[in-house]
């Protein structure tokens, strides 16, 4: 595994987008191959947790910083509305059992929302932010630190992150860190 590197804010957020898009692809494959309910639920909950963390670091850190330097608020306002729709669907999925009729459909539609949102962020918002004087390196560090905190709270840390985690917060939950299916209640308590 590569050593943990410092990424600028935009690179970090784009990497998150790719991670979650890959997970949606895996979910699609599971549905096509009639994967087990357990596998589907574990993957869906992992997607929900990854998205929850990503949305939260954008809302807490990236969007407010972008708002300060951008001339227009439209893109950021739309992004926040899109987050709200996604979070609503995430909450529904986290409450559901994978055997329920609309489970796969909800995860699929969430993937479509996310693709649309990611496309807008990358082709418009991020491009505009890059043209401003915003310190993307410093912002990247802030995002990365907050992301690790939140992932640790949700038990999502992987070994790489655990090594990079300075505060040792992961020590408490390390034993169960690789079992996304166990995170249902953790994800729920975040809201
Ligand atoms: Fe976003
Ligand atoms: Fe994003």
Mean pLDDT over all positions: 86
Q: Determine the structural class based on helices, strands and strand pairing.
A: mainly alpha
What ligands can be seen in this structure?
fe (ii) ion
Low-confidence runs: 166-191
Q: Count of DSSP helices?
A: 7
Report the radius of gyration as a whole number of Å.
17 Å
Number of strands: 0
Cα distance spanning the termini? 33 Å
The biggest sheet, with number of strands, parallel, antiparallel or mixed sense and barrel status, is: none
Work out the strand percent.
under 5%
The portion of residues assigned to helices is over 70%
Total individual domains: 1
List the secondary-structure elements in sequence, H or E.
HHHHHHH
Commentary on this structure:
The protein is mostly helical. The protein has one domain. Helices cover 72% and strands 0% of the residues. The chain is built from seven helices and no strands. Helix 2 (37-69) packs antiparallel against helix 3 (74-95). The radius of gyration is 17 Å and the shape is globular. The two termini are 33 Å apart. 31% of the residues are buried. Residues 166-191 have low confidence and may be disordered. It binds fe (ii) ion (FE2) (2 copies).
In short:
By secondary structure, this protein is an all-alpha fold. About 70% of the residues lie in helices and about 0% in strands. It has one domain (about 10-160, about 175-185).
Q: How are the secondary structure elements laid out?
A:
Blueprint: H1 9-32, H2 37-69, H3 74-95, H4 103-130, H5 136-154, H6 159-164, H7 184-189
Helix pairs in contact: 1-2, 1-4, 1-5, 2-3, 2-5, 3-4
